[in-house]
Specification:
Blueprint: E1 27-32, E2 37-42, E3 55-59, E4 61-63, E5 67-72, E6 78-86, E7 93-99, E8 109-112, E9 118-125, E10 130-136, H1 141-151, H2 166-171, E11 179-182, H3 194-203, E12 206-212, E13 235-239, H4 241-252, E14 257-260, H5 262-269, E15 281-285, E16 300-304, H6 311-320, H7 322-335, E17 345-348
Parallel strand pairs: 1-17, 3-12, 3-14, 4-11, 14-16
Antiparallel strand pairs: 1-2, 5-6, 5-8, 6-7, 7-10, 8-9, 9-10, 12-13, 13-15, 16-17
């Protein structure tokens, strides 16, 4: 398949810039691959599609406040710094993106905070917008991370043009987030409320957790018509043995195994055994899933509505079936579903 196969008209007003009032009251479109049907529900109705012994796999990564604003020495120019990746155990070296990049050269210093108590020096260029920064800070690692959290803000995607609000700190995060390291949220999981999780638990639905630290690469545009030539950025994943055991038990017992989000699907498909079971794994993945693709672990999936020609849309098409997904997206636009990070959800059975 080609990049142009994933083009569709998405009105700008359908790009959600705020979450639904309550997590589990986003809209839910339900796709049945076998029956080729589409239903319109609420996210809290999800419970009706699962039975005792079914399994949901969650991504427990936690978003950290990765966007900082600093002032360039001498000129005082305001520079946005987006923290991408910690490069050493002390936490002082980081790969970052800077904007505007043309003003930032090796040797420049940036000052953060009203009292300019945190200073960083540019020590390398990595890409056109990428830089490596060395933070100059005398305290402990814990004190340094606390300082970054004080100065940073929730890294809402760029398509959201409004200022970050206090509510975003909680809502641009799943309620089960544990392991800090993501610069973007695993958004399908943001629809789960404590109340819905408790109802699912009472019904006997099981949960397993893994960690995939979502990077900005998940939003990188595909710039080649031939999808086989697109290269994904690597993201760090951790699948523990107890998670693999729970997943494999559900597979053996022919239960529903539901991947909550494209990040979970990417992680589990990156560590498949020869007999189509899940292996424990700690490392990195740059797996790019697009049609045609045979999935090994999950037999259902929860995801948000994705933007045209995105790698996330391509993975969803591989799972749902291209024709059914394109029909669903056309209906979603007609019905006014909200797209992207704060948007509505889709359950694919």
């Amino acid at each position: 398949m080609k990049l142009s196969d994933y083009k569709f008209d998405l009105p700008v007003e359908l790009l959600a810039d705020r979450p639904s009032e309550h997590r589990d009251e986003a809209r839910l479109m339900v796709l049945n691959r076998k029956e080729q049907t589409i239903e319109h529900r609420m996210f809290k109705d999800l419970i009706e599609y699962f039975d005792e012994g079914d399994l949901m796999i969650l991504n427990n990564t936690k978003v950290f406040p990765a966007r900082l604003y600093g002032l360039k020495e001498k000129t005082g120019a305001r520079i946005e710094v987006f923290l991408l990746r910690e490069l050493n155990a002390e936490g002082r070296l980081w790969d970052v993106l800077v904007d505007p990049a043309r003003k930032i050269r090796i040797g420049n210093k940036l000052f953060f905070g009203e009292d300019e108590s945190l200073v960083a020096e540019v020590i390398d260029n990595t890409t056109s917008r990428g830089r490596t920064l060395r933070f100059l800070f005398d305290g402990s690692y814990e004190e340094f991370r606390t300082k970054l959290k004080e100065l940073g803000e929730t890294p809402l995607p760029k398509y959201i043009k409004r200022d970050v609000e206090p509510e975003d700190e909680e809502r641009y995060q799943t309620i089960y987030a544990k392991h800090e390291g993501a610069v973007a949220a695993p958004t399908a999981g943001m629809h789960f409320s404590k109340h819905l999780m408790k109802r699912l638990e009472i019904k006997g639905i099981d949960f397993a957790e893994l960690t995939l630290h979502v990077g900005l690469g998940t939003f990188n545009p595909v710039e080649v018509e031939d999808l086989s030539k697109h290269k994904m950025d690597s993201e760090q994943i951790e699948i523990l043995k107890n998670t693999a055991d729970v997943v494999n038990s559900a597979i053996d017992n022919k239960r529903k195994v539901c991947a909550v989000g494209t990040t979970v699907m990417r992680a589990i498909e990156s560590s498949v055994s020869a007999d189509r079971h899940l292996n424990p794994y700690s490392g990195w993945t740059n797996k790019f899933i697009f049609p045609p693709y045979e999935f090994s672990i999950a037999n259902c999936m929860i995801t948000n509505f994705h933007t045209p020609q995105s790698t996330l849309m391509m993975m969803t098409a591989a799972f749902a079936g291209y024709d059914l997904l394109m029909k669903a997206y056309k209906e979603a636009v007609e019905e006014g579903y909200q797209f992207y990070s704060y948007g509505d959800a889709m359950l694919i059975l």
